[in-house]
């Protein structure tokens, strides 16, 4: 079955792309899913101008009106749930459970969440200040109000690992706050974002409020960042690309929200529940075939339980069926492309050369149905040290490196923090007080204590090279707003 996006969504119109089309490839079958439009630089500017023209009226709409549109959009996405999940699976290679439960369902939930978010208070009264008489005037009382205001035009550049949840997590809170958006989807799987735009159009979003411009060329994203009408850039992707975007934003003082790379450290102390730790860390191999920045891909394991941990994790891999993401029982589908498969495999080979022991995986998987598709065997690297590149660099695939440590909390924290990244770390210990003590010391935007679960109202973002700013829950509404103060004589 072929899905056709075919046209850009600019200023409320579906327009033919100036740069023609390129093929979206199914990572499981290597077949063409459908054509995606390639925007010209001028069409990206048109999108930015349309968003700027729409900003004034949209930012002045009643919050109830914005909430109603977001809620209707969620209803329409849910109405077409099966078709949406089918497209998401075809272009991302996600398993059926992931495409339905972690992609489309989360995308719908985020639109519903920010329909409610549009109604959250944006004003905070501050205590009055008593001013003495002086050069600035007579003595008096000055009242103050802190008011959250929309930023303006937001360019949203999304990642390929989740073509529904990631753009929804940007577009929905941005619209709820009264911003307008230019969305640049990941080139590998943009078709889902056009389906999202179609739902918003049907829900009644005014022309120009939402614009979608795709392209395989880096020039499309660059134009969406550089456009003078753009006030803010929200980006999810690699640290290297985020740094380049940050340089452009810095020159014109555009606001930024960056969710970048990760190399999550999972500290496993000697008193940990190993089965719980193994199950948590083992999910690295499942969600998105390891293509997830929150994965605990560095396991720092106390020597007293190191051998038992490695053996249990090796056994866990046996339950991770690799295969066609549409087949029942598949846990690990393909990675996004042949180029990315080659990159992941090159890291495994590098790990061998660096002295790591390949306990499991390390070879391209074979079997029925695996002759085509970009599959990578889940790989466990043991006997690693913190100076190895496979431990320090983000691989973004189903590869876990295990590093033993002999000391106490200080050594564990030092190892975990010896990284350029600081997105999400994890601590497993039977002593909850110790686990929380260690969690507070880690330089990471989030820490899971005896769990890989997330609270979807908790702030999300990273320290160091893992990003700038926080979103999720009400924090996303803050991220897509500016604070304005208003004062008056009491």
TrEMBL record:
* Record keywords: Oxidoreductase
Q: Which InterPro entries match?
A: Ald_DH/histidinol_DH (IPR016161), Ald_DH_C (IPR016163), Ald_DH_CS_CYS (IPR016160), Ald_DH_N (IPR016162), Aldehyde_DH_dom (IPR015590)
Question: Which Pfam families does this UniProt record tie to the protein?
Answer: Aldedh
One MF annotation (Gene Ontology) recorded for this entry: oxidoreductase activity, acting on the aldehyde or oxo group of donors, NAD or NADP as acceptor
Gene3D superfamilies in the cross-refs: Aldehyde Dehydrogenase, Chain A, domain 1, Aldehyde Dehydrogenase, Chain A, domain 2
Q: PROSITE patterns from the xrefs?
A: ALDEHYDE_DEHYDR_CYS
Q: Where is the Aldehyde dehydrogenase domain?
A: 14-486
The record's annotation in SUPFAM superfamilies points to: ALDH-like
Family, per entry: Belongs to the aldehyde dehydrogenase family.
Q: What is this protein called?
A: Aldehyde dehydrogenase family protein
Q: Which organism is it from?
A: Streptomyces xanthii
């Amino acid at each position: 079955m072929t899905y056709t996006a075919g046209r850009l969504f600019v200023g409320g119109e579906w327009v033919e792309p100036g740069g023609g089309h390129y093929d979206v490839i199914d990572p499981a079958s290597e077949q063409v899913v459908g054509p995606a439009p390639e925007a010209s630089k001028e069409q990206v500017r048109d999108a930015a101008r349309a968003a700027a023209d729409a900003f004034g009226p949209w930012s002045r709409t009643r919050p109830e009106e914005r909430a109603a549109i977001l809620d209707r959009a969620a209803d329409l996405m849910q109405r077409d749930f099966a078709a949406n999940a089918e497209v998401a699976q075809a272009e991302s290679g996600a398993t059926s459970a992931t495409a339905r439960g972690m992609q489309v369902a989360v995308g719908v939930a985020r639109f519903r969440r920010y329909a409610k978010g549009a109604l959250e208070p944006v004003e905070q009264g501050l205590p009055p200040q008593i001013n003495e008489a002086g050069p600035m005037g007579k003595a008096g009382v000055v009242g103050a109000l802190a008011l959250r205001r929309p930023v303006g035009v937001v360019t949203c550049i999304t990642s390929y690992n989740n073509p529904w949840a990631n753009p929804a997590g940007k577009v929905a809170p941005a619209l709820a706050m009264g911003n307008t958006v230019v969305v640049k989807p990941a080139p590998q799987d943009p078709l889902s974002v056009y389906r999202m735009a179609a739902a918003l159009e049907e829900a009644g979003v005014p022309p120009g409020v939402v614009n979608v411009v795709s392209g395989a060329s880096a020039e499309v994203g660059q134009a969406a960042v550089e456009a003078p009408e753009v006030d803010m850039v929200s980006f999810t992707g690699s640290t290297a690309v985020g740094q380049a975007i940050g340089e452009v934003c810095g020159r014109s003082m555009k606001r930024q929200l960056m969710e970048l790379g990760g190399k999550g450290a999972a500290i496993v102390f000697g008193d940990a529940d190993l089965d719980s730790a193994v199950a948590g860390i083992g999910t690295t191999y499942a969600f998105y075939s390891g293509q997830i920045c929150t994965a605990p891909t560095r396991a720092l394991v106390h020597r007293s339980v190191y051998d038992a941990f490695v053996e249990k994790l090796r056994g866990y891999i046996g339950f991770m069926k690799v295969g066609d993401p549409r087949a029942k029982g598949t846990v690990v589908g393909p990675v996004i492309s042949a180029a990315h498969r080659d990159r992941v495999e090159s890291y495994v080979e590098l790990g061998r050369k660096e002295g790591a022991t390949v306990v499991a995986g390390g070879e391209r998987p074979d079997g029925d149905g695996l002759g085509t598709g970009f599959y990578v065997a889940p790989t466990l690297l043991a006997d690693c040290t913190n100076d190895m590149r496979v431990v320090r660099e983000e691989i973004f695939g189903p590869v876990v490196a295990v590093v033993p440590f002999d000391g106490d909390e200080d050594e564990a924290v030092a190892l975990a923090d010896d990284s350029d990244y600081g997105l999400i770390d994890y601590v497993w210990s039977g002593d909850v007080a110790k686990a929380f003590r260690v969690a507070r010391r880690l330089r990471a935007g989030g820490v899971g204590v005896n769990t890989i679960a997330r609270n979807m109202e908790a702030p999300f973002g990273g320290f160091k090279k893992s990003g700038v700013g926080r979103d999720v829950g009400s924090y996303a509404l803050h991220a897509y707003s500016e604070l304005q103060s208003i004062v008056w004589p009491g």
